[in-house]
Amino acid sequence: MVVLALVTLGPLLYLFVTSLTPLDLTRPRSFRFVGLDNYRDLLADGRFWNSVQVQARLSAATVTAQLGLGLGLALLLNRPLPLRELIRTAFIVPLVLPPIIVAIVWKILFTPLLTPLNLLTMPLGLAQPPWLTDPDLALWTIVVADIWEWTPFTTLILLAALQMLPAEPLEAARVDGASAWQLFLRIVLPLLRPALVVAGLFRLIDSFKAFPLVFVMTGGGPGVATEPTNYYAYTQAFGHTVIGYSSAMIVFMLAVVTALSVVALRLPGLQPDVE
Amino acid sequence: MSSSRDENRVGRRAFLRTVAGLGALAGPGVLQAAAVEAAAADVVPPSRRFAGTTIRVSMFDTAFPRGLERLLPRFTELTGIKVEFELLGFSVFVPRADLELSGATGALDAMTLVFAQSGRWIGAGWPEDLAPLVKASRFDLEDLLPGPLAAMRRGDRIYGVPWLADSQLMLYRTDLVSRPPDTFDELLEVARRVHSPAVAGYLPAGKTGLNWVFPTFLYGFGGRFFANPPDDLRPALATPEAIQAADFWAGHLIRSFGVPGSANFEDAEAIATMQQGRAAIWIHSLGQLTRTLDRDKSTAADKVAFALPPRGPTGRFPQVASHGLMIPVASRKKEAAWEFIRWATSRETMRRVALDFQHAAITRASILNDPEFKRKYRLAGTDVPALHEAALRAAGAGYMAYRTVPEFPAVTERVVIALSAIAAGQRSARDAMTAAHNEVVQVLEKAGHRVR
Q1: Whole-model pTM?
Q2: A222–B276: do the CB atoms touch at under 8 Å?
Q3: How many CB pairs under 8 A join A and B?
Q4: Count of domains forming chain B
């Protein structure tokens, strides 16, 4: 038990203690207690608040799209289709690829001079926009890559839940003359709610870890347009060895993710609710 | 303005020695004298004392380490030392090196000492003092160009052996540009004239270029990073000159005529772009530009030439940099690592790499005078060694001082963010540079400098 607590909580405790120091690896004797100075600096740091906004937009867009698309694909794959097993396997491929490979593939696809999309657009005399360096487009390129990578995950969870749905309520509703849309809205969706919450929660927590996509595709740019909090913390910790300040950012992130998880797990939707 | 962190700074004397050294490089007499001295040096031959040892070496990717990698079997044959050699992109190398050095992991035995990081790393006590090893092996130090070497010395201590005395030049496509632009205005005009969807007017050199090429324009418009480094570090990023430079370079040249998306490029992507003939003009370091001449990979190898970067209203300010090889203090195989460094930076190895591969930015005076070297680097009618020498001579005036400030990497990160936002049309030059200025003030104050 003690070992488990040390292994689990030890690094977190060290992170928190470090966040109360101005630790900079290039400066000797900088591991000293300065109270909440780093947190006060965070509150006044515009770049930090920008990173929080970027993270919020990234998480909201990717989780919503992955749940919506995942549900649609799960419903599709739950029907008898020709080559269904093959299609299911193909859908899983993005999920098993290392994230860094996904990031490189999408970086190439979104780089105007390299993308094979040019084969389609060049003959039409159309130039690619600078997807990765346009502040209005760059974050959406990461969103697209993240959706491509992780929608199979929500699809798999929801497909498994669909296949475990009890047949009786659906048959009873059909006998009562319910339409397909009514069946979905009144029976399937309420029964899927716990699976949707779990899938959404997993993806929400994971969306805070979209680091490889940001690192490879945009490096947080242009400017800081695609710099989420974990990337900002990374640049400070590993670009400038400002470990204390960076730790404060990570403690903040940890608190937000924990709070979101607690709230999500207490949602009433975790219990199926069929009228 | 004074600093409370004198121990981490390049002293004025050390700095003056560096820039004076760069300037002194110009005279052929100096070169000849150095070459003669080098030839007379009684260098201890490679030792087999460490045969069977394996060392780990990490460098960022340029022409020299690529050539070195090909010659490694020769080193192993001479010394019996095996080398695990890794080449990384610059933007990956620096944070990784920071982590290895600060963690004192001992995982690396020799690695690149990066010019822009040298103030931080030496100040933090991370590189080993090589002076005793230099002395014991009677290493031929005299033949090394004095400027690059001085950047790695502090008093009698030597923290790195330079393998690159890089100068910033301009590469241009001779099939598109008849005469290289000599001024900023001409550069803009040429870029405008040749720019097309297939070939961009200008390649801004990727992520690293944002902090490596911008200073040429900043100083050319009369601006600067700091009031008077290393003594007066008050930032000067919100001055009219700095704003004008950022607006011209990022807001006009890159935004209108740059390779689309190139502000996000790693060096490898920028090199590939030029090799594929997708840009007309590229200002970067000689070590990277020469990669365009690789006939195996480049379709543009036979239609490029070199020139000095253009000048602005206040003059021409080609940037110079010097990277070296160092031994981390945590290495447990320092003597074997030194065998590698003295082989890699020896006259023979450096000359071999320069002649067999594309590494013109050499650090040994005797090679600069070598007729075979001069012949090889006379490219498209351009005397590249002469341009290289002219750029190094220009830097002798001292404008590179900003790069030896230990906080410069943190400062330049803020400037790069500003330039990236300007190039993307996200912010005006005035807004972005003023914001960068204010952030830099905070960075410097946190580091203990009084800059208001």
Answers
A1: 0.78
A2: no
A3: 94
A4: 2
> Does one domain contain both B160 and B180?
no
Asked if the structure places residue B1 within a domain, the reply is: no
State the pLDDT at residue A7: 86
Same-domain pairing of B201 and B271: yes
Q: Coil, strand, or helix at residue B320?
A: strand
Give me the residues paired with residue B111 across strands.
B58, B326
Please tell me the predicted confidence (pLDDT) of residue B74.
94
Whether chain A has a CB inside 8 Å of the CB on B116: the answer is: no
Measure in Å the smallest separation between the Cα of A135 and chain B Cα atoms. 6
Residue from B39, B43, B54 nearest B134 by CA: B43
Give dist(CA A223, CA A64) in Å, integer: 26
Instruction: Please state the ipTM of this predicted complex.
Output: 0.72
Let me know whether B326 and B315 are in one domain: no
CA closest to A41 among chain B residues: B442
C-alpha dist (Å) from residue B148 to A261, B4, B21, B158, B317:
55, 27, 8, 12, 18
β-strands B153-154, B226-228 pairing: unpaired
Pairing of the two strands B281-285 and B54-60: unpaired
Summarize pLDDT for A111-133 with one digit per residue, the tens. 887 788 878 887 787 778 888 88
Domain annotation for chain A: domains and CATH numbers: 10-270 (1.10.3720.10)
* pLDDT for B227 beyond 60: yes
Beta bridge partners of A31: none
Residue B452 lies in a domain: no
pLDDT tens digits for range B304-336: 999 999 999 999 999 988 899 999 999 999 999
Write the residue in A47, A135, A235 that is nearest to B426 by C-beta: A135
Cβ atoms within 10 Å, residue B428? 15
A213-241 pLDDT, tens digit per residue, is 999 999 898 889 999 999 999 988 887 88
The arithmetic mean of pLDDT across residues A170-179, rounded, is 89
Contacts of B446 in chain A (CB under 8 A): 22
